[in-house]
Design a protein that fits this description.
alpha+beta, eight-stranded antiparallel β-barrel, globular
């Protein structure tokens, strides 16, 4: 799930996680999570479409039925695609609420997605909060699995004190066969092993077809940026990517912020 917490809360929660021998960072173990991890080289054109959240490491977050849709907006520059990433999900607590996160960004062949996004405001009724985020593609096979990471808080030593991990699949999780589940579980554990993480540290995303559908309205600022990119798509040059509102794929997140969100809670059983 994609909910922002304050940097202070994130750093405290990270230090005090049960069994925190895995993934420790500035306090010293060889399995530190790097703030700028090695990413998989990708074909950006194959990253678009619908992805379903299957496994997640975002401590203290409650959410279900997480859809993740990538729509290309511009493909003028070879090896880089400007796209819209829209996430929608249902929060069950404190009351059922449909939530949207809208991002516009670039994904390059280096597997980094540099985005400008509008996130849920932690103040009820407040406007969406704008932040810049870099998603790192740790693994994808394009058809069954995609593993992403962001660093919410980097240490001076170059390690990440508050990482988030996600595993997405192309098939709705309730329809996955056992062999695909085994493949995902094994691959996630192998990819995250250098960080001393495995599937046992991640949580299965809740999927419940009986819940109401979630089709929220996109934030106006995000819609406006998407429209601007579309309108200029036929005249863009490669220089656009160093001066546009969306970030270059190779840059890292600016500042210590995480996804704003709701009070910590457990996913419903």
């Amino acid at each position: 799930m994609y909910i922002l917490l304050t940097s202070v809360l994130l750093s405290v929660a990270w230090i005090m996680l049960p069994g925190s021998i895995y993934g420790q960072t500035s306090n010293g173990n060889s399995c530190a999570v790097p703030s700028i991890p090695r990413t998989q080289a990708v074909d950006p054109a194959q990253m678009s479409g619908v992805w379903y959240e299957y496994l997640v490491y975002t401590p203290g977050i409650v959410g279900d039925n997480v859809y993740n849709v990538l729509i290309p907006l511009n493909t003028q520059t070879p090896g880089i695609i400007t796209y819209n990433r829209t996430l929608s999900f249902l929060l069950r607590t404190p009351a059922p609420q449909c939530v949207v996160i809208c991002l516009v960004g670039n994904i390059g062949t280096d597997g980094k997605e540099a985005t400008t996004g509008w996130f849920l405001n932690p103040t009820p009724g407040g406007p969406p909060v704008k932040s810049d985020v870099v998603y790192n593609t740790l693994f994808t096979d394009y058809h069954s699995l995609q593993i992403k990471m962001i660093c919410n808080q980097a240490s001076a030593a170059g390690t990440c004190d508050a990482p988030y991990f996600w595993a997405y699949t192309r098939v709705k999780p309730t329809l996955l066969d056992q062999s695909t589940k085994n493949y995902i579980d094994d691959t996630v554990s192998n990819v995250l092993a250098p960080f001393c993480f495995s599937t046992r540290n991640l949580t299965f995303t809740g999927w419940d077809d009986s819940l109401p559908s979630c089709r929220p309205t996109l934030p106006a600022d995000c819609s406006a940026l998407m429209q601007s990119v579309k309108q200029t798509s036929n005249s863009m040059s490669s220089n656009m990517y160093s001066s546009s509102p969306v970030m270059q794929p190779s840059v890292t997140m600016r500042g210590n912020f995480g996804f704003f969100g709701f009070p910590p809670g457990r996913r419903p059983a």
